[in-house]
Amino acid sequence: MSGDDGRPLGRLSVVGVGPAGPEWLTPEVAARLEAATDLVGYGPYLERIAGAHHRVHASDNREELARATHALDMAAEGRDVAVVSGGDPGVFAMAAAIFEALEGAPAGRWEDVEVDVAPGVSAMQAAAARLGAPLGNDFCVISLSDNLKPWSLIQRRVRLAAEADFAMAFYNPISRSRPWQLGEALGIVREVQGPDTLVVLATAVGRGEREDVQISTLGEVDPAAANMSTLVIVGATSTRVLERPSGRRHVYTPRYVEAAQ
Amino acid sequence: MSGDDGRPLGRLSVVGVGPAGPEWLTPEVAARLEAATDLVGYGPYLERIAGAHHRVHASDNREELARATHALDMAAEGRDVAVVSGGDPGVFAMAAAIFEALEGAPAGRWEDVEVDVAPGVSAMQAAAARLGAPLGNDFCVISLSDNLKPWSLIQRRVRLAAEADFAMAFYNPISRSRPWQLGEALGIVREVQGPDTLVVLATAVGRGEREDVQISTLGEVDPAAANMSTLVIVGATSTRVLERPSGRRHVYTPRYVEAAQ
């Protein structure tokens, strides 16, 4: 492609390939990947979807802004670049990083690059579907990582969300350098909600034998059972377990809330 | 299928077909629809996906519990039933209604029916992708309908979400019988956040010429411009517009929040 003045017109697609496997990858994303000349993203995601015609640019999962810059540079050279996120690129993933890079760019840099975002199934949705419908009423979505925002803000958001009796989905609950944050966040909820409030640790949902879903409560959960692949769901007051005759346990939040609450 | 004692074993899949068009329908959902003998859901969703081999059971969009009962009855007869939601069935949709019906059932009813949920792209994700990344940091998801919960609880949740400086996605913002709720909810946010806070009315995203995305502010938005097909996004303090040299306007929320905030 080229513009009226002969300069190349690049394209950058920010796509979400879902939290695991091809069954959650949308046709829109499949088409954008097929059209792309270059794939940019975290190595394990790219391995799942790279084709023979792709140039693959794998990077570490923490270098989002450097990755965004590299992707925009290639698009400005006229390549058709797909920036790949697991889950949904709009939920704690690469879409915001691309716009941060664009906004911080010197005037004129990347000005011919067109950016499009294609949504995907996010980890909280895959976890929720496995369980039943724990996010079936109002809910909040919070990243517990304080790499890019102050921990005091995260504390405040968790506390207000508990006071509002939202169900919650926690992303980035724990890492090697942040082993204490999930426990502290659950402790904040515990100051507001009862010990029987449901907590689910949903790890690697959709990834076969690695998948592990633990249904627990605020009073009993062990935060150390979570890892970087865990999506944490904290129930609202009305969230409950439904055990079926088969023994299977579902977790869901009804659509209704009684006026008495 | 039949069990050891010869009784039919039914299957019920609750599936999300995305907010529009086939490009957001996952392969998992496509496979479940293909396997299903019976489709249950809101008529316009079913028209999008019914095949020649399906028995189609269309109903009005407000009769979720009656629809759930009908679907479970058919599954108990040994049919392979797909209950179809637009968007994600776990977000203000049919998954919770199915579990409500199961929990309220007399002992023994539907006991052999196995229920599975398949996630889909939700309306907020399609809207967010069209805009850029407005939900790129912590956010809340709230249904403004008080059909099933008290309006006082919705008011409280909106106020606490504003105090927490979450971005927000409002589902069911308005209907013929509830023309005032979106305006009142935005008014609550306005008591906490400044008039420059971004508000987006994203109507019928993905539905061709019907799609209409309006970027406005708390100070200027006209709630009457929303309808039943509108997904409303209210920005956090840090949510901003990025206008590209092409004239295209993106809305995004950075991943970072300054400590000063």
TrEMBL record, chains A, B:
Q: Which SUPFAM superfamilies match?
A: Tetrapyrrole methylase
According to UniProt, the name of this protein is Precorrin-3B C17-methyltransferase
Q: Do you know which Gene3D superfamilies this protein is assigned to?
A: Cobalt-precorrin-4 Transmethylase, Domain 1, Methyltransferase, Cobalt-precorrin-4 Transmethylase, Domain 2
Its taxonomic placement starts with: Bacteria, Pseudomonadati, Pseudomonadota, Gammaproteobacteria, Chromatiales
Keyword terms of this UniProt record: Cobalamin biosynthesis, Methyltransferase, S-adenosyl-L-methionine, Transferase
Q: Does the record carry Membrane as a key word?
A: no
Identify the pathway.
Answer: Cofactor biosynthesis; adenosylcobalamin biosynthesis
Provide the GO biological process annotations: cobalamin biosynthetic process; methylation
Origin species? Thioalkalivibrio versutus
Root EC class: transferase
Checking Pfam families in the record gives: TP_methylase
The record's annotation in PANTHER family points to: COBALT-FACTOR III C(17)-METHYLTRANSFERASE-RELATED
